[in-house]
Phosphate ABC transporter substrate-binding protein (Flavobacterium gawalongense), 307 residues
Amino acid sequence: MKNYAKLPYFIFISVIVMFFACNQSKSPKNKETILKGSASIYVDETLTPIIEDQVAVFESKYEAKIKLIPKSESETVNSLFKEESAIAILSRNLTMEELKIFEQRKITPKITVFATDAVAFISNKNNNDTIVALKDVISFMQGKSVASIKGLVFDNPNSSTVRYMNSLAGIKAIPEKGVFSFKTNDEVIKYVSENDGMIGVVGVNWLSQPLPAMQKYVDSVNTLSVKGLTGDNSFTPSQNNIAERKYPLARDLYVINCQGYSGLGMGFASFVAGDIGQRIILKSGLLPIRIPGRNITIRNKSGNDKK
């Protein structure tokens, strides 16, 4: 005789196995790989143009869909803590205090440096001065009167440019007098192009890769040469000056991946730090972390040479 007593137990075990298998198949981690699936990435708004280019090429090559969410630096960092996103792109690394928060959650962020950009100063084309001394900008931010500066215009009170300049000036908050802020870099560029005497503070990528609708405003401003805190020479935020460390307001860019598994965060970070991603950065006018190689074919004879 067959032992039917064991059959219900066998069915019970089979149901449990199938239940967990179905739940595993529904897990985002299994749907998503390093080159497939969907993910949201918060990005420091000052870096949006170059990251949009990277996402467009990445999506064209792989079965991936990335939702890019431009926010201020403060909001971008907070998105990681609030678990609104596990991937963020910043113009600074995480601080020791921030890393401790992830350590308490037993998460080790994977941090990838992929480029160097710069904070740029711009002025109206009608202004005769095309050079600004960094010490004068710092003094103005400290609340001191500077004859050469009528006012400073930032994109957002919580932006990376404000945090960067506050750090240089040794202050915790921008002064109430003479310093203004909007919401975006585009608004800063537009305002400066229409107002004499104001100096705008923007991410250089917004000048090298403006949207078509913004081109006329970018053409109406000067990118100022900056005289550093040491030496008498001044330098524009060109790719070459950033590479030679001559421009005093350069900063590295980071992909912060807190996914904790092999997902699109890992794939996208590898892409932007890889050959194709670095070529996109090079073409944008920013400085790639590693210069992409070039294949050069040397021919002994041209096609038109007589044999």
Notes: The chain has two domains: 31-116+252-288, 117-250.
